[in-house]
Amino acid sequence: MKPTLPYTPGSDGAGTVEAIGEGVEKVRRGDRVYTGRTLTGAYAEYALALEEQVHPLPANIDFKQGAGIWVPYGTAYHALHHSAKAHASETALVHGASGGVGIAALQIARAMGLKVLGTAGTPRGLELAKREGAHQVFDHRKSAYQEEILQATGNRGVDIILEMLANVNLSYDTKLLANNGRVIVIGSRGEVTINPRELMGRRASIRAFTLWGITPAEEADIHAGVLAGLENGRPIVGKELPLSEAARAHKEILEPGSAGKIVLIC
Question: Is pLDDT at 98 greater than 80 in this prediction?
Answer without folding.
Answer: yes
